[in-house]
Structure formats: C-alpha cells, structure tokens
Write a structure and sequence with these properties.
Number of strands: 6
Distance between the termini: 13 Å
CATH class: Alpha Beta
Order of helices and strands: EHEHEEHEHHEH
CATH architecture: 3-Layer(aba) Sandwich
CATH superfamily: Flavodoxin domain
Strand content: 15-25%
Helix content: 40-55%
Bound molecules: flavin mononucleotide
CATH topology: Rossmann fold
C-alpha cells in the first residue's frame, strides 16, 4: 500500500503542513492498528522544480511513446508515476487569491491532464483521495465565495480517480507568527482563539481522514 501526501504550502511548520502531518499520523496509527505496513510519504511541492502543463499534448498522442503520461523532464518526472500508482493521494493547500496555490495548480495540471480522456473515462485506476484547504476567511465567506473552487478541483479529482474525494476546509487560520510585527487588519485575539479552540478540532478531522483512508484502501483490496 502506498499513501502520498502532497503539501502545497511553502511553510513546513504552519497550517497546511500541520494538517498534512495529522493525516499522516492517522494513516500510520490505523496501519499499526490493523497490523499492516505501507509506504507513507510527504512531498513538499515548494522543494521541487517544475512547471505546469505545457500543452505539448504528447500525453494525448495516439500510439505515442508518452500516451497517458507526461514527457516533461523535471522534478515531477519520477514522482508522477508513483502518484498514479498510489493507493491514496492526500493534497493540502492554503488558499491564495481565492484558489489553491500556484504550485498546487501546476501540480494538478501535471497530475490530472495525462489521465484525462476527452469525452471518455479517465485512464487512471480508482484511487482514494482527499483535498484539504486552509484559509484566512471565515466559513461564511468561504461558503459565499469559494465553493466553486472546491467543486472544480474535486470534480476533476473524482473524474480522474473515480472515487469522490474527502474534503476538509479549515477557516480563519493563524497566519503570522507575531501579529504585532506585520501589516494586517485581523483581530489577533479572535484568531488566537480560533487557533486554540478550533484548529485542534480541524487537526482531529484531518487525522480521521487518514484513518478512514486506510480503511477504504484495505476494504478496496479485499
Ligand atoms: C499570497 C497569499 C494570498 C492569500 N490569499 C488568500 C485568500 O484569497 N483567501 C484567504 O482566505 N486566505 C488567503 N491567504 C491566507 C492563507 O490562505 C492562510 O493564511 C493559510 O492558512 C496559510 O497556510 P500556511 O500556514 O500553510 O502557509 C493568502 C495568503 C497568501 C500568502
């Protein structure tokens, strides 16, 4: 069994990374619980050199050498086949300008387009996935303005990997290490309260997604 967790944030000690770590913990605890071993690996997109899809269309060339894969030789070249062969993929990203980060978008293009079939079923086998988003805004604003972002990404994940992704949205995150040192218009106290009271619950939800993914993968194998 192979579980890959993809961190679409540059900050290894902040919100997205903590959520990804919580999913990883849920995965490893449930594997232990079930006396199973598996590969569980976290990939930080910001440590990799790559670009988004270049529309070379080799992945669509019938009987071409690269049909269904990606010919671009960069840091994703060796990783993409691992991700396509995984049992579960967990993707986490902060919201930047009402979308996932540029790194995550470029990654999604490279992950999804090679398996995309115009007017047909994707070339991928079924795979369990989860999408985690974290952001500054409140749940209300997210519901009002961001739902189409989640739907777009999750529709393409579901089309490609044939199973509905788990989805976790984490609101009102604590953004600065020390709010007094930076320009902002946030209520630091409210943010701190959210971090102390709500974020642990978000981490628990992330952990539970990890547990559930292991159960799903094991069920699918039986
Ligand atoms: C360039 C940039 C753009 C951002 N845009 C948004 C936004 O549109 N909506 C939002 O709710 N938060 C936005 N944020 C805040 C981050 O999504 C939020 O702080 C997130 O939890 C940071 O994740 P991290 O701690 O893993 O870096 C933005 C942050 C940055 C740096």
């Amino acid at each position: 069994m192979k579980f890959y967790l993809i961190n679409g944030s540059n900050r290894r000690k902040f919100n997205t990374a903590k959520l990804i770590d919580a999913v990883a913990e849920g995965i490893t605890d449930e594997l232990d619980n079930q006396n199973k071993t598996a590969k569980v690996e976290i990939i930080d997109l910001y440590t990799l050199e790559y670009k988004g899809c270049k529309s070379c269309l080799h992945c669509k060339k019938i009987e071409g050498k690269y049909y269904g894969t990606c010919p671009i030789k960069d840091d994703l070249n060796e990783l993409l086949p691992k991700f396509w062969g995984a049992d579960a993929l967990i993707l986490g990203s902060p919201i930047y300008f009402r979308n996932v980060t540029g790194q995550m978008r470029c990654f999604l293009e490279r992950l999804l387009f090679p398996k995309y079939v115009y007017g047909g079923e994707s070339l991928s086998k079924p795979k369990h996935t989860a999408m985690i988003y974290d952001m500054n805004v409140s749940e209300e604003i997210s519901n009002e303005k961001y739902n189409h972002i989640y739907d777009n990404i999750e529709d393409f994940l579901e089309y490609t990997f044939k199973i509905k992704p788990y989805s976790l949205k984490v609101y009102d995150t604590y953004q600065f290490k020390d709010y007094s040192l930076y320009q902002h218009n946030f209520d630091e106290e409210a943010k701190r309260k959210q971090m102390e009271e709500q974020f642990p619950k978000d981490l628990e939800e992330a952990y539970n997604i990890g547990v559930q993914l292991v159960k799903d993968v094991i069920d699918a194998k039986n």
